[in-house]
From TrEMBL:
<dbReference type="GO" id="GO:0000976">
    <property type="term" value="F:transcription cis-regulatory region binding"/>
</dbReference>
<keyword id="KW-0238">DNA-binding</keyword>
<dbReference type="InterPro" id="IPR036271">
    <property type="entry name" value="Tet_transcr_reg_TetR-rel_C_sf"/>
</dbReference>
<dbReference type="InterPro" id="IPR009057">
    <property type="entry name" value="Homeodomain-like_sf"/>
</dbReference>
<dbReference type="Pfam" id="PF16859">
    <property type="entry name" value="TetR_C_11"/>
</dbReference>
<protein>
    <submittedName>
        <fullName>TetR family transcriptional regulator</fullName>
    </submittedName>
</protein>
<keyword id="KW-0804">Transcription</keyword>
<dbReference type="InterPro" id="IPR001647">
    <property type="entry name" value="HTH_TetR"/>
</dbReference>
<dbReference type="InterPro" id="IPR011075">
    <property type="entry name" value="TetR_C"/>
</dbReference>
<dbReference type="GO" id="GO:0003700">
    <property type="term" value="F:DNA-binding transcription factor activity"/>
</dbReference>
<dbReference type="InterPro" id="IPR050109">
    <property type="entry name" value="HTH-type_TetR-like_transc_reg"/>
</dbReference>
<dbReference type="Pfam" id="PF00440">
    <property type="entry name" value="TetR_N"/>
</dbReference>
<feature type="DNA-binding region" description="H-T-H motif">
    <location>
        <begin position="49"/>
        <end position="68"/>
    </location>
</feature>
<keyword id="KW-0805">Transcription regulation</keyword>
<feature type="region of interest" description="Disordered">
    <location>
        <begin position="1"/>
        <end position="26"/>
    </location>
</feature>
<feature type="domain" description="HTH tetR-type">
    <location>
        <begin position="26"/>
        <end position="86"/>
    </location>
</feature>
Amino acid sequence: MTQSETHTIDEASPPVRRGPGRPRHADTEERAFRAVLELFGQKGWSGLSLDGVATHAGIGKSSIYLRWKDKRDLLLDAIRHLEAQNVTPAGEDLDIREYLNQHACARAEFFLGEYGPAMAHMFSAAVVNPEEFKEIREENISRGVLALAGRIEKAIADGELPPGTSVHHLLDAIEGAIFVHMLISSSRSSREELEAGLKDYVRELVDIQLRGVGVSV
């Protein structure tokens, strides 16, 4: 075959097309956040990995590793994103009793929600893995608590609560009771049953705590 014949064949040959490969997703972060929270809720910290998140989310591993250096960073971003959707009550127009009721209901519904198992694992994992969870603990576990602490401090300053009321004791009593109630009751009651009795439980819880600090309800 001559050189000219070779050129003719090359020019006539169609270009080679590459396969499409794995498609890119515009919602990669949303899918990764959902996957990491679901896996964390199912398997805990030790069972979590970036490879597992990629597989669970149905996205390429490179998409995960280009965005997050490790599972801690991905989980932290997912929790930040989740907390941004978790609206706390606007305290300006609510008296302290109603604020506490709405806050406690919102926290309970959060634990009852889709990512309740992930939040339960987060508290225990923060105790077992203090260094890995230091930033997550400071940003997430403290965030909802700090909002409530600020509102209790305002109630004391405005005279809604007696002087000398312990912010931390009142806060711990409500936050702790909600967490334990959701954790323990969920093992013996259905979600529907818990939701049906939630407002009554919260109302009684808040009233007990307010009477304990000397407020007539």
